[in-house]
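One thing: mind reviewing this one?
=====
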Amino acid sequence: MNEGGGSDLFAGACFTWRTFGVDLVSTVEEFVPGERIAWVAKASGVTAYHAWLITPTDLGCHVLTEETQHGELARRAACSFPAGRSAGANGGWKGSGFDSPKT
């Protein structure tokens, strides 16, 4: 949910979300519509930084994501998910061909 109940994002906007049973409070750090978005997410035991770089394609767009996490909860998660969190956290996008045209 975006702070103030609106649906638009902007640098400085705050929103909350839940993943892997953890409630996070996030603040948008960068927002350029159609190009990039980056936010800091915080919860007890973890601080994370997420960035999405968006490149337009003929079929829509390609999204490159980067994420870094710090804190005790992040260290424990790294032990639980040593190969990454692609299927659970990202709806199975990794390796799905989501950004590739069908031939």
